[in-house]
Design goal:
Chains A, B: The modification N6-(pyridoxal phosphate)lysine is found at residue 249. Chains A, B: Its EC number is 2.6.1.83. Chains A, B: Belongs to the class-I pyridoxal-phosphate-dependent aminotransferase family. LL-diaminopimelate aminotransferase subfamily. Two copies of one chain form a homodimer. With 408 residues, chain A is an alpha/beta fold. Chain A folds into two domains: 7-47 and 309-407, Aspartate Aminotransferase, domain 1 (Alpha-Beta Complex); 56-306, Type I PLP-dependent aspartate aminotransferase-like (Major domain) (Aspartate Aminotransferase, domain 2), CATH 3.40.640.10. In chain A, 35% of the residues lie in helices and 14% in strands. Chain A contains eleven helices and 15 strands. Chain A has helices spanning 16-30, 50-62, 79-90, 108-114, 133-142, 195-208, 279-290, 296-304, 308-334, 358-369, 395-407; strands at 37-38, 102-105, 125-129, 157-161, 179-183, 211-215, 241-246, 259-262, 268-270, 276-278, 339-341, 347-351, 371-372, 374-375, 386-390. In chain A, the strands form four sheets. Chain A has a seven-stranded mixed sheet, sandwiched between helices. Chain A is globular. At the A-B interface, helix 2, helix 4, helix 5, strand 9 and helix 7 of A face helix 2, helix 4, helix 5, strand 9 and helix 7 of B.
Chain lengths: 408, 408
């Protein structure tokens, strides 16, 4: 009988969100009359904006014509989209990125999960605790970790706690780490990194010979103009960092699927013999061998995000969500909850009341107020006693949720 | 400096199709006046049929409405699509498959490349030679192979030659192999496996304790009703096989991206301690952790493939391509070329004239007739001296191509 990849057996329980789905389904099956408000999984709720819909409708129609049909596109993404990305997200912010440094994909979850493949299997990763589980789980699956220890940490991962004590700003890894995952604006804490702090990270990576995997999927929610949107706004970052971006939260693409990563050609790794190899070339090989490009219709939709009208329309959606964040922050703050994040990010990180465990508070909120949030402990042991609320709900749901929570 | 995954350095040159692209570009840059006919990469040329376009247009519009917006869908795919797949592709052919045995993805290239992750790293793979390069390259990247040897084979892969001598019907692996990749109708040879032969494969897998990865991306081109479209039409196949299916060639989705794999719950692997684990559960964990579902708009398009009108429309496209295959077979056959395949598959496999090497014939066809095909040697050493032509061209191009080749 064929042997399985036993690293999968090291994984703790189900992936966080399916587990939430399971509990919510069990509750709603038993309480069909109750209306559940979901502020959990971080899914957007506003429809695609007209510019995007129109572009997708036109593209779908084009696909039905002999002259407009598109078969296999470039695996890396169409130039029409890549050039808009570069112009809008980088050139305008003073960052020079070339076309072959951008790889369009069907989602940041995929990119963040697949990127580890181009690194040596014995490289050591460092993650913030709490953290987006995909960074950790995909390295467990690949075999870069040991088993989970009593503390809830995997052996052979360097954890950098982000706690109230350090204002959720993790310290540099205490042991040598080859690959450092950072996410700003942060999921789940909703905190951001100042330009100074990011510069310290880049300097640290240069000094320690590490690579930073910088997930900026939430950059469009940054309100403070002094906060960098891209790590490449920091001098020297191109030699040490890969950046992840997504249309999911920026433009409501969670069900439409488009994202991209940037791998500057300056970013090098080495072989066991000391030869230097560009990670861009390795990723290009992976991307062309294991991926076949994003749907043409989707890429045309993504392109529309960068039109003047598209920017205006998605800007309004982002303002709507950030107003939700403000309402949650202020509403729950006024009820005595201790609140973090939500100023430059669509996530609010709150301390559970009465020292409840995260899943206890999850069950309480679900059963008493029919609200679904995300247990902080699902993001790592340092998230125990915390809870994530998303600002992606509909306004009326957000208002009801605040009212219901205040009543508990 | 962070260490790279050195397995990538074992990979031979570029992936086949980018290399073809490079040569074609070089030629067309130097000969801008010549019209090139592409029968190489196997991309379809007919536009999406009206049923699919209409479904995608409606879905895109729906995504712009508050009531019709779809955010994150189930990673595994929407039930509306999975149930149609099961009914049409399995139930109607007497095969019982349940909803949680089907996983919708964005392409068979991705599925065929990713599937190896759920197997032990020390499992040994067997492939046909010639073979779709993705099966091999993704295992090289993962570290299951040694270097390429003088014969052009990777060490630690079991190769099963498909040659004129065995009528392109490979023998069972001569050494123990844990995972056997089979593709029927075959890419690149265009040959099919009879029900008897498939039953022998299933029996072999049972006896040897191997798993068959069965790629049936081209099943819709089977004309002979006695040839199985699914390996599950064979008794006992569910305990030994995973099946790959795609909308790419069936419905012109090469630029729209939708495929699926079937992993029956009966299919088990074992741990080093001998514990049995279902591969379905491992893939489910991978799929939910590293993938975020296929675009809603795309899935609605794929659903339309199964409507009565959709079936009629794609049936006409398949007939069109199979008529191309007939024209190529007969046209080149009449000119003295030795031809294989193309009866139940969209690929024609031909012996190069004058004992030319595959790439020599590629360059000759390109420079003398401005026709792009695929060198057989790109699929493995046993493909040397052969050449693949695709039947996916437009009729006028196919007719011109035949005429141009006849003139050489």
């Amino acid at each position: 009988m064929t042997r399985i990849n036993e690293n999968y057996l090291k994984l703790k329980a189900g992936y966080l969100f399916p587990e939430i789905g399971r509990r919510v389904k069990a509750y709603s099956d038993a309480n069909a009359d109750k209306r559940i408000i979901r502020l959990g999984i971080g899914d957007v709720t506003l429809p695609l904006v007209p510019s995007i819909v129109n572009a997708m409708v036109e593209a779908a129609k084009e696909m039905g014509t002999p002259g407009g049909f598109h078969g296999y596109g470039p695996e890396q993404g169409y130039s029409f989209l890549i050039n808009k990305i570069i112009e809008h997200d980088y050139t305008k912010r003073g960052v020079k990125i070339s076309e072959d440094e951008v790889f369009v994909s069907d989602g940041s979850k995929c990119d963040a999960g697949n990127i580890q493949e181009i690194f040596s299997l014995d490289s050591k990763i460092a993650v913030v605790d709490p953290v987006y589980p995909v960074y950790v789980d995909t390295n467990v699956m690949a075999g870069r970790t040991g088993e989970v220890n009593a503390h809830g940490h995997y052996e052979n991962i360097v954890y950098m706690p982000a706690t109230e004590a350090n204002n959720f700003e993790p310290e540099f890894p205490k042991e040598k780490a080859d690959i450092i995952y950072l996410c700003y604006p942060n999921n789940p804490t909703g905190m951001v990194a100042t330009k100074e702090r990011l510069a310290e990270w880049v300097a640290f990576a240069h000094k320690s010979g590490s690579i930073i995997l910088f997930d900026s999927a939430y950059e469009s929610f940054i309100q403070d103009p002094t906060i960098p949107k891209s790590i490449y706004e920091i001098e020297g970052a191109k030699e040490v960092a890969i950046e992840f971006r997504s249309f999911s939260k920026t433009a409501g693409f969670t069900g439409t699927r488009c994202a991209y990563i940037v791998i500057p050609k300056e970013l090098k790794g080495k072989t066991s013999k000391g030869e230097e190899i560009s990670f861009n070339s390795l990723w290009s090989r992976r991307h062309t061998t294991k991926f076949n490009g994003v749907s043409y219709v989707t890429q045309k939709g993504a392109e529309a995000v960068f039109s003047a009208q598209g920017q205006k329309e998605i800007g309004e959606q982002i303002s709507y969500y950030m107003e939700n964040a403000r309402l949650i922050r202020e509403g729950l703050g006024a009820s005595g909850y201790k609140i973090f994040g939500g100023l430059n990010a669509p996530y609010i990180w709150l301390k559970t009341p009465r020292n409840l465990k995260s899943w206890e508070f999850f069950d309480e909120l679900l059963s008493k107020a029919q609200i679904v949030g995300t247990p902080g402990s699902g993001f790592g042991p340092a998230g125990e006693g915390y809870f994530r609320l998303s600002a992606f709900g509909k306004r009326e749901d957000v208002l009801s949720a605040i009212e219901r929570i205040q009543k508990i």
